[in-house]
Design a protein that fits this description.
By secondary structure, the protein is an alpha/beta fold. It has 13 helices and 23 strands. Helix content is 31%, strand content 26%. The strands form six sheets. Strands 1-2-3-4-5 form a five-stranded mixed β-barrel. It is globular and about 70 Å long. The termini are far apart.
């Protein structure tokens, strides 16, 4: 017997379970199909576990320099097993919370692998979901009025470099390490690679970071990228940009040796492990898309601005549709997709109003256009920049490297972009995000009274600096 629903969601990650909650709030009979654990990559293999490790690295780094604060400690040691135990505890607490939210919303959860069927005895339209249950029971048939695909993504691999889980690993295997390597080669200097380089360096691992582009994190403002490289190198990370890794040179003999070409020559790098960090790829195989008219474009599912596929009753959100592959983006896409299928009129999400966060040390956060993008789009710009070295709270905190940079349209005063590298940047970007939503100008941000002493004073000063009016700069 088939189970009928208003909405069935394929994938119980951040986007999937948020979609389920919103659908439940709107009175829709809802089910989620998840083959692993609710919470998905973000909770179990991405955002939360990596940030737990980064926090432990931050505490360890602070403990080692505690004498700078007048706190004398001796024999500071690292217990990596305890670090991993703490990480697992945090994940479990949040996982329990997500399970509670499903029960609270009376959302049916099917633990298994879902596949979209074509027109059948169950429905004249494609969209019936056949669930191969994890417990070995017979397949469940779910007949929804609407489907939301939220199957997420997985780490990309580099052709010729096979992840073996021991010597060549992805971020997923790295999160499960029982012991830290003495040295590691990270291939890919994007967000994930930079975070791992920062973390492992703080945990006393000898890190080499190889990036194909000429700058780290090429999607960020170039001044931010240059400052990040400077700070990573101060930690002892060997950063090589413009590096074309040659997979065929990989040699494993108790350690890993691999070559990369840069400055017209091949150079050899040696480490205990290689961490592949070259992006992520959408999970769209094996879910029955071939039974539908859904269009795949550039290896992701194509949708309209309300996340409908070519099959109008089938929506797709999150990493499987490309774009900004961020948990908070998937959540907002989920809400808008559900509201649209429920007959409401949600606003179209503007990518330039989405804050982006990078949890390196120092942290990076941004919203809007980079200086380079603004110029490419033909804007006449003016900009303000303010260093954390002039911010009392940053000096008190002991983390004063970095700056805030604000870019405005010189003709209209419209805010075009805000870029931060420094202490607690990922928390501070909230002010810039709100300013962006409210279409505030730099003058209005600068006129806002920022409490003293706080780190956010740097935002106020950078805003004043756009028109040359910074007080302490």
């Amino acid at each position: 017997m088939a189970n009928e629903y208003d909405v069935v969601i394929l994938g119980g990650g951040t986007g999937g379970y948020v979609a389920a909650i919103r659908a439940s709030q709107l009175g829709l009979k809802t089910a989620i199909v998840e083959k692993n654990k609710l919470g998905g990559t973000c909770l179990h293999q991405g955002c939360i576990p990596s940030k737990a490790l980064l926090r432990s690295a931050e505490v360890y780094r602070t403990a080692k320099k505690s004498a700078d604060f007048g706190v004398i400690t001796s024999d500071v040691k690292l217990d990596f097993a305890k670090i991993q135990e703490r990480k697992k505890s945090i994940i479990q607490q949040l996982y329990t919370g997500v399970q509670y939210l499903m029960k609270k919303g009376k959302i049916d959860v099917f633990e298994g692998t879902g596949r979209i069927l074509g027109p059948s005895i169950f429905s004249p339209m494609p969209g019936t979901i056949s669930v191969e249950m994890n417990n070995g029971d017979e397949n469940e048939m779910l007949v929804p009025k609407n489907v939301i695909i939220a199957t997420g993504s997985r780490p990309k691999t580099l052709q010729g470099l096979k992840v073996d889980g021991q010597y060549v690993i992805s971020s997923e295997e790295a999160l499960k390490m029982n012991a830290l390597p003495k040295s590691i080669i990270i291939i890919g200097g994007g967000v994930i690679g930079a975070e791992w380089a920062s973390m492992l360096s703080d945990l006393d691992v000898d890190v080499t970071l190889l990036e194909y582009s000429n700058v780290l994190i090429p999607t960020e403002d170039k001044e931010i990228s240059k400052e990040l490289q400077k700070q990573l190198e101060k930690k002892g990370v060997k950063v090589v940009t413009g590096a074309n890794v040659l997979p065929e040179t990989l040699t494993i003999n108790g350690s890993v040796s691999i070559q990369a070409k840069y400055k017209e020559e091949n150079h050899t790098f040696i480490g205990e492990k290689v961490l592949l960090s070259v992006g992520r790829t959408a999970n769209i195989e094996g879910i029955g898309l071939e039974n539908t008219d859904i269009v795949i474009e550039k290896n992701v599912i194509k949708t309209n601005s309300f996340y409908q596929t070519k099959e109008q009753h089938i929506y797709a959100i999150g990493d499987c549709i490309g774009g900004l592959q961020l948990a908070h983006v998937a959540s907002h896409e989920a809400i808008k997709a559900v509201e649209h299928l429920a007959g409401l009129s949600p606003d179209v999400m503007n990518d330039k109003k989405i804050p982006k966060c990078i949890y390196t040390s120092p942290e990076i956060a941004s919203i809007g256009l980079t200086e380079e993008e603004a110029k490419e789009k033909g804007y006449s710009i003016k900009k303000g920049k303010f260093s954390f070295k002039a911010i009392g709270k940053a000096l008190v905190y002991g983390e004063h490297e970095g700056f805030v940079k604000i870019i405005s349209d010189s003709k209209t005063d419209d805010l075009l972009g805000v870029h931060i590298i420094g202490p607690h940047a990922t928390d501070m970007i909230g002010e810039a995000a709100l300013a962006s939503v409210l279409d505030a100008t730099a003058w209005e941000i600068g006129s806002t009274i920022h409490a003293h002493p706080t780190l956010t004073e740097a935002i106020g000063e950078a805003a004043l600096a756009v028109d040359g009016n910074a007080i302490h700069g």
